[in-house]
Amino acid sequence: MKHVLVVEDDPHNAIVFRKLLEKRGGCRVTVTESADELLRHAREGGVDLILMDVSLPNARMRGQHVNGVDLCRILREDPACSRIPVVIATAHAMRGDAERLLAESGANDYVAKPIIDHEAFIARIRGLMREAA
User: Fold this and answer.
1) Cα(61)–Cα(110) distance, rounded to whole angstroms?
2) Cα–Cα distance between 39 and 19 in angstroms, integer?
């Protein structure tokens, strides 16, 4: 069973992602908003994809606030987790945001919240995990 790590601070969004990924995607899901927990899981292995919220108001590393873009760059620079596919998710989707966020973060893909087309979302997630395998 594929393991998806969801990095999300909003409890409602976390529940939606968990249900979609578990029930429709057949994935095992771990949810966190902790930068330390994210990095621990990613470095330990066994994470097949990370779904990363951009806005993480409570995420800290070494006493400094970090957001999803920062965390994605940290993952990309770490050889232990640089190959894990990362999907950036944000509710603040405006024209040009996808391209900018992908360029700034190094993420593999981008999704706007809320997820409207559940089947297309699951297909994208499955596709990224297949490519990485």
Assistant:
1) 24
2) 23
Task: Give the pairing type, strands 3-7 and 49-53.
Answer: parallel
Q: Are 4 and 27 in contact (CB under 8 A)?
A: yes
Q: CATH top-level class for 3-132?
A: alpha beta
- Residue 121 half-sphere exposure, CB side, CA atoms within 13 Å? 22
Question: How long is the chain?
Answer: 133
What mean pLDDT comes out for the span 94-104?
82
Q: Which two tokens stand for residue 41?
A: 């899981």
Question: Whose CA is closest to 21, among 116, 124, 107, 122?
Answer: 122
**Residue 93: pLDDT band with limits 50, 70, 90:** low
Q: What 3-state DSSP class applies to 13?
A: helix
Question: In the beta sheet, which residues pair with residue 65?
Answer: 60
- DSSP 8-class letter at 79: T
Segment 117-123 shows an average pLDDT of: 96
pTM: 0.95
27-63 pLDDT, tens digit each: 999 999 999 999 999 999 999 999 999 999 999 998 9
Distances (CA, A) of 55 to 65, 69, 72, 113: 11, 9, 12, 12
